[in-house]
Amino acid sequence: MGFVTVIGWGLVLLQILALSPLEVSFTLLLLIVFLGICEYYPMPVPKGHTTLTFPIIYMIYVVFGLETVIIIYAFIVLAINLTHRRPLRIMLFNPSQLAISFYLAHVLHQIMMETFLTVTISPLLNGLIGFSLMIILFYILNNVIVDIVLWLRPEPYTLKIWWGKTHGELISFVISYIYGCLIHILGSQNRGEVDIFSFFFFFSPLVGLSLLSSIIARLKTEKNRIRALFQFSTELNKSIPSRGWEKLIKNLLQELMPFEDCILFVKNEKGIWDQTIIKGEILSDLPLDALLELEKISHLQGYDHKKSGKGPLAPFLRASSRSVVYAPLLFEGQSIGCFVVSKGRTKSFTIEDTRSIATIANQLAVFLKTRQLVSEQERRIILEERNRIAHDIHDGIAQTLAGAVMKLDISYKKLETHPSDAKLLIADSIKKLRESLKDVRDSIYALRPYPTEELGFHLAVEKKLTELKKDPTFTLDVQLQVRGNRGSISPMTEKVMFSVFQESIQNCLKHANATHLHILISYQSDHIVLKMRDNGRGFSLYHAMIKAMNQPHYGILQMNEAAEKIGAALQIDSKPNEGTEITLTVPKLGLEGEIDND
Questions:
Q1: DSSP E strands: which ranges in 362-502?
Q2: What is the pLDDT of residue 591?
């Protein structure tokens, strides 16, 4: 960039020295104003922007000469860059590379016209050929210079970015070419004197088109940015129960903006700072002082100049990182982390980039806090389940074993004096011990890994149905239907859904006397539905509830309690001789951790 800047401004200086006294006219002033407007409202393209100014530049070139157009073009672009407060390197580079491109296009145009077009075909055709060569050479040279500079810069310049930039330049080229051809066609006709009003009415539509195309392109860019942020938020929420969320964040961020380093610092429940390197590296382990400095950041801070440094992590970032943005992760006014993004050039973060980073930081804060809350809720549910099993063992198995031991002790004392009583006590103790053994096995089975923990919900359901169909006594016709896109489900939700499925299957086999069972698993926009409908004899829900209360087991009451733990709703519809339909509706608000965007 420095080499091109020096050559370009040297060329501009030579044109100033070679410029003969110029009489300023209203026509030139009008063209300068139009040129400034078109340059001020460019069409954004990847890694830069493009304009529709070539017809105006070409008109100044034809009417006022090469020196005038290069000087005016360079200083107009410099003034526009200064107005936009672009970095100094960009401010000086843009005018110089445009001046070089136009000058080289002029030289090559003269050589090619003198070499290949020695015979005048017609003034109009010669003018069209000359204009075509000029605009083609200018666009090629300009884009080649920019492509070389972008390729040499530290930031990645991918084929996708190149094509996006080239596509925008092609649109600009086509519009400018059509307008330039109109200049020659209308100029070849005898329409009287060409005055300032002629220039005004001819170039006004081009200026209006430049303004309109700039606005449309900017709106489209903003729309794509908002869509990318929405996609980021959606996919992030889907990954709440998954473990590979770091890779997901990396992929989503790369779609939003290019960056060199991206590090996420999160304070865990114990108050310890954990770092997740999305991309890049930290040169050494961070001391406590540096982490405390991160915790003090209360608003988005950017460091994009050599004098301002790189912020709290300056000693630990790579030398190639020159612009750094620190975005705190705040939840209810408390800092739970910090999102750090860096680029390889100074002043390389645009306003849109910083807004996107602030939005991402807010999303990450909610995401990480939700993960913590979900994790706490799952631990609480697991603890409650363990306490329930411990309570059952203490009040059930332990009491039974204590009673059996007491009876065996009594029978041992009565064995010689009252052998018949001793035998009765021993027989009763053996019965109690066998019952306790069954309870112990049930408790051990309850503590074993759940099928969904090893296979996941869908594979566990399919495996269960496959095992049932292998039983020769199994005659039930089962149809499994899955709708929507399968998403990530938390282990606790999978366990509850499978428990409801398994209990419904058992009830259908033991009590319903059904011949057909339809199972529906539906992933909808805001909830997941598990619906099981059979054509069995049905039952009275009122009497079933009374029976469940009197004879506790994993039935209606416990299915409902399990559903409530994950915020789900269990609905049972059944009447005698009309079949049974069990519906479990799980909202996509927490434990399942998914928001679908169908």
A1: 477-483
A2: 41
Count CB-CB contacts under 10 A for residue 515. 11
**Rounded to whole angstroms, how far apart are CA atoms 359 and 327?**
9
Q: What is the pLDDT of residues 234-254, one digit of tens each?
A: 777 666 655 666 677 777 676
Residue 190 has pLDDT above 70, yes or no: no
Looking at residue 249, its amino acid is: I
Phi then psi for 329, rounded to 5 degrees?
Answer: -95, 105
Say how far apart CA 263 and CA 167 lie, in whole Å: 33
CA–CA distance, 131 with 55 (Å, rounded to integer)? 10
How far is it, in rounded angstroms, from Cα 495 to Cα 554? 14
Residues near 314 by beta carbon (within 8 Å), at least 6 away in sequence? 324
Q: Which residue has the higher pLDDT, 102 or 162?
A: 102
| Contact between residue 106 and residue 63 where contact means Cβ atoms under 8 Å apart | no
At residue 37, the pLDDT reads 92
Q: What pLDDT does residue 96 have?
A: 92
Which residues does residue 523 pair with via DSSP β-bridges, in sequence order?
528
- Determine the longest span between alpha carbons in the chain, in angstroms: 142
Euclidean distance between CA atoms 422 and 459, whole angstroms? 53
**Residue from 147, 113, 145, 114 nearest 132 by CA:** 113
* Residue whose tokens read 């000693």: 315
CB contact at 8 A, 109 and 21: no
Strand partners, 343: 323
What tokens were used for 257? Answer: 């903006």
User: Where does residue 505 rank: exposed (0-12), middle (13-18), buried (19+ CB within 10 A)?
Assistant: buried
Instruction: Flag whether pLDDT at 224 surpasses 90.
Output: no
The pLDDT of residue 554: 46
Burial class (CB in 10 A: 0-12, 13-18, 19+), 24: exposed
Q: Per-residue pLDDT tens for 123-134? A: 788 888 889 999
Instruction: Transcribe 450-492 into DSSP letters.
Output: PHHHHH-HHHHHHHHHHHHHHSTT---EEEEEEES------HH
Answer yes or no: are the C-beta atoms of 307 and 247 closer than 8 Å: no
Structure token pair of residue 119? 């015979």
Please provide residue 588's backbone torsions phi and psi, each rounded to the nearest 5 degrees.
Answer: -90, 70
**If we measure between CA atoms, which residue out of 314, 311, 336 comes closest to residue 326?**
311
Distance CA 407, CA 51 (A): 99
Cβ burial, residue 429 (10 Å; 0-12/13-18/19+) = buried
User: Residue 555 above 70 pLDDT?
Assistant: no
The first and second tokens of residue 289, run together, are: 């002082």
The alpha carbons of the chain give a radius of gyration, in whole angstroms, of 38
Contact in structure between 365 and 331 (CB atoms under 8 Å): yes
What does the buried/exposed string (b/e) look like for 75-84 if buried means 16 or more CB atoms within 10 Å of the residue's CB? Answer: ebbbebbeee
* Selection from 274, 275, 280, 273 nearest residue 253 by Cα: 280
Arithmetic mean of pLDDT over the chain: 80
Q: Do residues 578 and 538 touch, judged by C-beta distance below 8 A?
A: yes
| Cβ-based neighbour number of residue 238 at 10 Å | 21
Q: What is the chain's length?
A: 598
pLDDT at 238: 66
Question: Which of 591, 480, 564, 597 lies closest to 530, judged by CA?
Answer: 480
pLDDT tens digits for range 54-89: 999 999 998 888 999 999 999 999 999 888 877 787
